[in-house]
Design goal:
Distance between the termini: 47 Å
Order of helices and strands: EHEHEEEHEHHEHEEEHEH
Number of domains: 2
Strand content: 15-25%
CATH topology of the largest domain: Alpha/beta knot
CATH superfamily of the largest domain: SPOUT methyltransferase, trefoil knot domain
Structural class: alpha/beta
Shape: elongated
CATH class of the largest domain: Alpha Beta
Mean pLDDT: 88
CATH architecture of the largest domain: 3-Layer(aba) Sandwich
Number of strands: 11
Low-confidence stretches: 69-77, 240-244
Strand order of the largest sheet: 4-7-6-5-10-8-11-9
Number of helices: 8
Largest sheet: 8 strands, parallel
Amino acid sequence: LFRLFLKAGGGPGRPGRGELALRAAARGLPVLHVPGRALDALSRGRPHQGVCLEAAPLRFRSLRDAAEPGPGRGDGAGPQPLWLALERIQDPMNLGALLRSAYFLGVDGVVASRDNSCPLTPIVSKASAGAMEIFDVYSTDDLQGFLKAKSAEGWEVVGTVSRPGDVEDVPVISCSEFRWEKPLIVVIGSEGEGLSLETQLQCHRMLAIPPGRALHPGIDSLNVSVATGILLHSICSQKRRHGD
């Protein structure tokens, strides 16, 4: 952390900003009170609530840094581990929302494909409500190889699809029918293109969210972060029942 910028003057958010200033001072961090237009420039016009923090960038971590014997908890204690794999998620707001949901719902780790994916930007961090700052996010140049290796180790790999008719050679089931019985990786594709064929073929099954009505052709899918939240909740709600 380098410097904390706070909006000068009064306003409804000032008491909270005062607490931030005290915390920054306790860390020896310079605190600068600046006009709102300066914060607008620092945040490139995006909402800032009167606060900007200058910090070193966060990078994706290498899978080599993941704890052995593999992602999550592989010691048999407690619920089976659950990881989220992201392929070509390019929108920073969606990526941030995905990380926020994954952290909240108890996902053990996240791995993203390095190519054609959004980096860990300040916009991602804000959209994640800070989850990006405390949740390790890994990346890989070979997502299919990662999935194949975890499958060989006994993990189940499930993909996601909004339109079941688009999938070939991989069984598709409703997320409400899925049962979490072994270490699990849920693979999420881009909002526009979904999962690549190469990644689909690494999946044991595909999960779909059944709609609540007959859908208009132009409104036949969910936002990727919303869909992921629904799928993860459906899966993670089984934790307390696991082993029954």
